[in-house]
Design a protein that fits this description.
This protein has twelve helices and eleven strands. The protein is globular. The protein has helices spanning 35-48, 64-72, 74-81, 91-100, 111-125, 136-149, 167-178, 191-199, 215-219, 228-232, 236-243, 245-265; strands spanning 7-10, 18-25, 28-31, 57-62, 85-88, 128-133, 154-159, 182-186, 208-211, 270-271, 277-278.
């Protein structure tokens, strides 16, 4: 939960001091944290809320598409600002932070990689996961592969994300009955943020909600990751466009130039909840 404009603190079970700096990247407050510590924080914070009957934390992620969408749509921006932490899931955000801050983002925190970091820790600390999103066949395959890769992980439930009218009430009850420490929510932007914010006060059995985008497509093997070198230089979007040109080419043609402009003009400046820019560069 934010305590001022420059840092964020979390209560955990480990006794660690989880006070994280925030930097403004492309107009959004991004946590200065690497992948390994992100996984540790997620498990710590989620377990601290087990059986506490408190509202779950919401961790989400931003990339160029998200920056563009938030700048164009105030409602979507408010959904992201309602989250307790925003990861940088895009190398351009990391590059921009290096230009504007003495304390830049240490690395990209890609949800697809973060899941595996968190799963390994969850096995050791008996943290429980629930997967919600994707098609029924994709989530079934994702759950099978997760159980095979992490046999000691307590995967307490999974469900496809294409919910028919009236099904949300039942899935909320199912999730609460399963009592997962972390709910991995892959419904796509901004639907997953809407779901998390709308239902967080009713998810009494959940410690933390992690919005996950297309995570389950990768966990199931339906989609492949870009080569490591493309990920490192910030070109994973190009690989995804190569695989799905009809669906993604138009999107990136619009959002990439806009995101680049936002990274140059709205990084290093503090912004309020309505997007007004304030001066100041370093946390």
């Amino acid at each position: 939960m934010p305590v001022d404009t420059n840092c964020i603190r979390f209560d955990t079970v480990s006794g660690s001091d989880w006070t994280l700096p925030l930097v403004t990247i492309g107009g959004l407050p991004i946590a200065v944290i690497d992948r390994a510590r992100s996984a540790q924080l997620m498990i710590d914070a989620a377990l601290a809320r087990r059986d506490a009957q408190t509202r779950p934390l919401i961790f989400t992620s931003a990339n160029g598409q998200v920056l563009s969408l938030c700048a164009r749509d105030a409602t979507t921006r408010e959904l992201f600002l309602a989250a307790d932490l925003i990861h940088a899931d895009g190398m351009p955000l990391v590059f921009a932070s290096r230009l504007f801050y003495r304390m830049p983002l240490p690395e990209r925190v890609a949800t697809t990689d973060l899941f595996h970091d968190a799963a390994r820790l969850a096995q050791q600390r008996r943290a429980r996961f629930f997967l919600l999103g994707a098609t029924d066949s994709t989530i079934e395959q994702a759950a099978r592969r997760v159980r095979a890769d992490y046999p000691d992980l307590e995967l307490v439930g999974h469900r496809g994300g294409y919910l028919r009218c009236g099904e949300e009430e039942r899935i909320i009850a199912d999730i609460n009955n399963a009592r997962p420490d972390i709910l991995w929510l892959g419904l796509g932007v901004p639907r997953e943020q809407e779901f998390a914010v709308r239902y967080r006060d009713r998810l009494h059995g959940v410690g933390l909600i992690k919005t996950s985008g297309g995570l389950f497509d990768f966990l199931s093997g339906k989609n492949s990751r870009a080569p490591v070198w493309m990920q490192f230089v910030g070109l994973e979007w190009a690989y995804r466009t190569y695989l799905e040109p009809r669906r993604l080419a138009g999107r990136y043609l619009i959002t990439n130039p806009h995101a680049a402009l936002l990274l140059l003009t709205r990084t290093g400046a503090r912004t309020d909840r309505h997007g007004a820019v304030r001066t100041g560069h370093d946390p």
